[in-house]
Specification:
The complex is a heterodimer. By secondary structure, chain A is α/β, with parallel strands linked by helices. Helices cover about 25% and strands about 20% of the residues of chain A. In chain B, strands 3-2-4-5-1-6-7-8-9 form a 9-stranded mixed β-sheet, sandwiched between helices. In chain B, strand 7 (about 260-265) and strand 8 (about 275-285) form a beta hairpin. Classes of the chains: A alpha/beta, B alpha/beta. The interface of A and B includes residues 51, 153 and 200 of A. Chain B: This is Elongator complex protein 6.
Chain lengths: ~300, ~300
């Protein structure tokens, strides 16, 4: 489902890629940009976090003229007085105007890298309002944003993702080259589809989806067939019928059976009398020392 | 005077109990002080990656030995270094660098090193003395000024001039070292302002000037809640931006005399280049040795 959603077969909306510091979602964002370029759509990038050459590298060379990078990386706050796009300019009107400046008539895609940067300077409510206006505006067909989940409170992340048609959460998988993507896609009909997939973004920005891998750390090896331990041995551990009967007949030492009970109740045949000859040094007293006990 | 020297000597890489005076500076010693670390990171003063943002962090340990390493490393590599010393005085780094074979005073005189001694300049700013060029860098102490724009201007002015007045001395790529960022949080600067500052530093020094940037963030274990003004938040946010992260921690089993802690080195690349490795280390008189966990000489 990841491929279909990013290749944009559905008609637009807001796509949010959520990542954490352990695995960057920027590769997936680049894949999204590449797909849009292949569809010959105008791509406008509000780049706050990485410089232009890092995003532009490896993109489809045929349609590079459709890639418009609005540089908000070098001077986003106007400190150097050479800013191209500042964070203050983030509003639906400004962005719509920027997008309309390009002459291409086909639908446009807006890519925001990243929403987390903007959230540091704008109220989350304001961001949601601007995104909503852009979605309804008509100048932009698809908005694809990157959001760093671990930098915001959960409430803010959820409220921004509530606007989105598609939310892709990427997480790293222990010691693996691929990552896990959990996609939640809300169709126009209202149906919500969810899927978990493992993917890698290759050097040429192609997406490779893996099945659930066998060397996953959470593999549950459940043996259905019971293994017979007495098989494949050099000695014999099995019993024949005669041996089995004899084994069952053996009386266990500490089991109190009927025979033992009757044996104990019978008096012994005068075995084991004790004869004591007191020595000269012995102080033999015939009296019973417990005589005075009143039991 | 003698008391000062004794005090400074105790702030050595390893706590020093002998009170001998520092020997006079001899010819620059070219021996490798952190050979294992250089080989792990595949870098040397003659050959290192440009445009890197290296994030150093520690939790219940002291990563300042890495700051001393990078300071001497880049000075040896003949780079122009801007050092923001927000927590220690110049003489502290000077004494330690002497042991590692680099003369900071000489570097400063030659113009190779620009050192911001924030501790020395702070009382003047706080008490409201006349503002000079230097104290604009410490604007963050004057409330309500939450921006680190002044500090950024200072860094830009120090590193943007190529070679300084003396055209004969051509230095290598510019390097910014910050020791450390967490103290700014304690001084009332918001995490957002610090992140804006590091963003600008990275955009100009790393991307534009192809230089490198090293920053230290010190974390506390108590701040485990989701506070947006804590060092943990700063660390997470900077981890997104950095290209190399070295996390220093004490051993989970407690204090050990022969193993001072462990370092997690995280190369943040794409695909196969994204690697994390853990090494244990021991800091000694003239450097630190790094080894794979369990292979300390004391154990084997």
């Amino acid at each position: 489902m990841l491929t279909e959603v990013l290749q944009g077969s559905d008609s637009g909306g807001i796509v949010i890629i959520r990542d954490t510091s352990s695995y960057s979602g920027r590769d997936l964002l680049k894949y999204c940009i590449n797909c849009a370029l292949k569809r010959e759509e105008d791509v406008h990038v509000l780049g706050f976090e990485v410089p232009e050459q890092e995003l532009r590298s490896e993109l489809d060379s045929n349609n590079k003229h459709l890639f418009h990078f609005h540089n908000a990386y070098s001077d986003p706050l106007g400190w150097r007085k050479q800013s191209s796009f500042t964070v203050e300019q983030f509003s639906a009107e400004n962005i719509t105007r920027l997008v309309r400046e390009t002459k291409h008539a086909k639908a446009s895609v807006l890519v925001i890298d990243s929403l987390s940067w903007i959230e540091r300077h704008h109220n989350p409510v304001a961001i949601c309002q601007q995104l909503h206006k852009l979605k309804k505006g008509g100048a932009i067909r698809t908005i694809c944003c990157l959001l760093h989940m671990d930098l915001h409170q959960q409430g803010i992340v959820e409220s921004i993702c509530h606007l989105a048609n598609t939310v892709i959460t990427v997480t790293a998988v222990n010691n693996a080259l691929y990552a896990e993507a959990k996609t939640t896609h809300r169709k126009k009909s209202g149906k919500v589809m969810q899927e978990e997939e493992f993917f890698t973004v290759m050097e040429n920005l192609s997406l490779s989806i893996e099945k659930r891998p066998s060397q996953s750390g959470h593999a549950q090896v459940h043996s259905d067939a019971k293994v017979d331990p007495a098989s494949n041995l050099t000695f014999n551990l099995r019993l024949s019928e005669v041996e089995r009967e004899a084994k069952e007949k053996v009386a266990l030492p500490f089991v109190f059976s009927q025979e033992k009970k009757s044996a104990l109740l019978k008096k012994g045949q005068g075995s084991g009398r004790i004869i004591y000859e007191p020595d000269a040094n012995d102080d033999f007293d015939e009296e019973d020392p417990d005589d005075d006990l009143d039991i | 005077m003698i008391i000062c020297i004794v005090f400074l000597l105790t702030q050595d890489l390893q706590s020093c109990t002998s009170f001998h005076t520092v020997p006079p500076p001899g010819p620059c010693v070219r021996s490798e002080m952190f050979p294992e670390l250089n080989s792990i990171l595949s870098s040397s003063p003659e050959n290192f990656t440009e445009g890197e943002f290296i994030l150093l962090s520690d939790r219940q340990a002291d990563a300042s030995f890495l700051i001393h390493h990078y300071l001497t490393f880049y000075l040896r590599a003949r780079c122009r270094v801007c050092f923001l010393g927000l927590v220690q005085s110049f003489s502290h780094y000077s004494v330690v660098s002497q042991r590692l074979g680099v003369n900071l005073t000489q570097a400063k005189e030659k113009g190779q090193l620009v050192f911001l001694e924030a501790l020395k300049a702070s009382p003047g700013v706080l008490l409201g003395d006349e503002s000079s060029d230097k104290t604009a860098a410490l604007d963050y102490l004057r409330s309500p000024c939450p921006e680190l724009r002044g500090l950024y201007e200072f860094v830009w002015n120090s590193l943007s001039r190529a070679g300084g007045e003396d055209a004969a001395e051509s230095w290598g790529p510019p390097v910014l070292i910050i020791d450390d960022l967490s103290v700014l949080l304690s001084l009332g600067v918001s995490a957002g302002a610090i992140l804006d500052f590091t963003h600008y530093c990275q955009a100009t020094i790393c991307s534009q000037l192809q230089g490198s940037m090293i920053a230290l963030v010190r974390c506390d274990d108590e701040e485990y809640d989701e506070d947006e003004e804590s060092s943990n938040y700063l660390l997470k946010a900077l981890s997104h931006q950095c290209s190399l992260s070295l996390r220093v921690e004490g051993l989970s089993t407690g204090y050990c005399r022969d193993i001072h802690g462990q370092v997690e080195i995280w190369w943040r690349g794409r695909g196969i280049k994204n690697q994390r490795k853990i090494f244990q280390y021991k800091v000694h008189d003239k450097g630190a040795s790094f080894f794979a966990p369990g292979t300390s000489r004391a154990v084997l």
